[in-house]
Design goal:
The protein has about 140 residues and is an alpha/beta fold. It contains three helices and eight strands, in the order βαββββαβββα. About 20% of the residues lie in helices and about 35% in strands. The mean pLDDT is about 90.
């Protein structure tokens, strides 16, 4: 049976879309493929990296959409499958981001970052390095 569903795309409501773009585009290398400009300001965008997408939309201050709370990103994490998660880690460091030290979990290198709105991002790649090994222990 063929499915009508083709893709799931995370949709993040963000406090400041320009801050988020610096993190995702300048920091992680995402490309903006689509955008919505409302009253001269970027209101929404579709970002892509290697065929994996996410959407960002800035909260409106007029109360017509979700409001920013102190519980940013609560309960939300996105896992990206990569060829080389360690490359993501080194690139993120070089671009001034603050990834956590990679470790091996479930047979994968795991590089974790938190975006400006508190969303947890995990970049994973297969490895045969022993479980729970940290990058600093492996080198």
């Amino acid at each position: 049976m063929n499915s009508n569903v083709k893709q799931a795309v995370p949709f993040f409501w963000v406090a400041d879309v320009q801050v988020s773009l610096r993190f995702y585009v300048d920091g992680l290398g995402f490309k903006m493929l689509n955008q919505w400009i409302n009253k001269g300001k970027l209101a929404w965008c579709w970002l892509d990296i290697g065929g994996t997408a996410l959407m960002l939309q800035e909260h409106r201050s007029d109360g017509t959409q979700f409001k920013v709370t102190d519980k940013k990103g609560l309960g939300v994490s996105i896992c990206f499958t990569c060829e080389d998660a360690l490359l993501i880690y080194h690139d993120a460091l070089a671009k001034g981001l603050a990834p956590q030290e990679p470790f091996v979990g479930n047979g994968m290198w795991v590089c974790a970052l938190t975006d400006p709105d508190g969303y947890k991002l995990f970049f994973n790649s297969q490895t045969d390095v022993p479980e729970e090994t940290k990058l600093s222990e492996w080198k």
